[in-house]
Every structure is written in structure tokens, then in C-alpha cells.
Amino acid sequence: MADVVEQMKKDPASVKWGGGSRGSTEHIAAAMIARAVGVDPAKINYVAFRGGGEATAAILGGNVTVGGSGYSEFAEYIESGKMRAIAVTGDKRLPGVDVPTLKEQGIDVEIGNWRGVFGAPGITAEQRKALTEMIIKATKTKAWAESMEKNQWTPALLTGQEFDKFVDDREFASLRAVMVKAGMI
């Protein structure tokens, strides 16, 4: 990661960041990294791909400098030595994976790819409660546990006011600021 940062500081456009669509978690992470190391996020060279297969091919083919995705997307290539993992964006290392976090490398960035379940405007409190209970129940199934393990996902279930606060205070405000600075919106 130090080599990537050094090159980015010399010439931000020379580092091609590959990942999901414009405004994706990977795009925002690249902008956050740039900002954290003193590089204008609007100057990063982000190459958006429609899917993980395209991003993987671009990384393996040397068409991008750095690629981002969930670890499970690249695991087979990392384990075979075809790709080199240089950082994870989470707050801690993935279990069983010897890849340092950005923070361990002195870059104050932490971002995860999370999913939310949102109800339509105007649903009743009873409907919201029923949806919440279904989600909680789903996270306690064997299939969910197997998916968590297979994909090396980090559990982060939030519901009710805790989820509302996460979305309103932390996530959207912070992400929007990065996206504006990077020229994404």
C-alpha cells in the first residue's frame, strides 16, 4: 500500500483504481484513501466495471494498478499468487487472512460494503416491526451462517434506531461528503 500511496502522491492519475460502478464502495474507498493521504480525491483515476468478473480480468491483465472488491471475489487469485492483497478496508483483519487494514498501515480509512433493507414510505410501525423480525430471523439460519463463512463477511446487524442513526449520522453524511469532494455527485 505504501508503494500505491507514494505513486499516487507523485501523480494521482497514474494509479488506476478498478472496481464497481461509479460511486460504488470501491470508488468511495479510493477517494477516501486519496483524501487521507493528502491527494485531491477529484484527481484519482477510477475505472468502473459492471461486475466483479470484468474487474478481476482488468487486475489480472495489468490494466489497472489496484482493484477493489470483497475478499471472497479475489480469494482464489490471492491464494494462487496471481494477485497480491495489500489492504482491507474494515476496522480489523479478516479472520484467517493475513492482510493488514489500512489503519494498520497508517491510513485513517475504514469503509465496509453493507446492505440495508428499507421499507416504503408510510409503512406502519407494525409493518416495520414485522420486516425487522423477518430479517433478524433470516440472520439466524444455517444458510446465512454458511454464506457468512463462505464469503468471509463481517456480521454487522443493526435494526431500529441504531440502524437509523448509522445511516443518518455516520454513513450517508460521511459518504456524501467524500463523493462530492471526488466529483462523483
CATH class of the domain at 2-113: Alpha Beta
Uncertain spans: none
Mean pLDDT equals 90
Cα end-to-end separation? 27 Å
Task: Briefly note the structural class of the backbone.
Answer: mainly alpha
Q: Spell out the CATH superfamily of the domain at 2-113.
A: Periplasmic binding protein-like II
Task: Describe the model.
This protein has 185 residues and is mostly helical. The chain has a domain at 2-113: 3-Layer(aba) Sandwich (D-Maltodextrin-Binding Protein, domain 2). It contains 7 helices and 3 strands. Strands 2-1-3 form a 3-stranded parallel β-sheet, sandwiched between helices. Helix 2 (25-36) links the parallel strand 1 and strand 2 (45-48). The radius of gyration is 18 Å and the shape is globular.
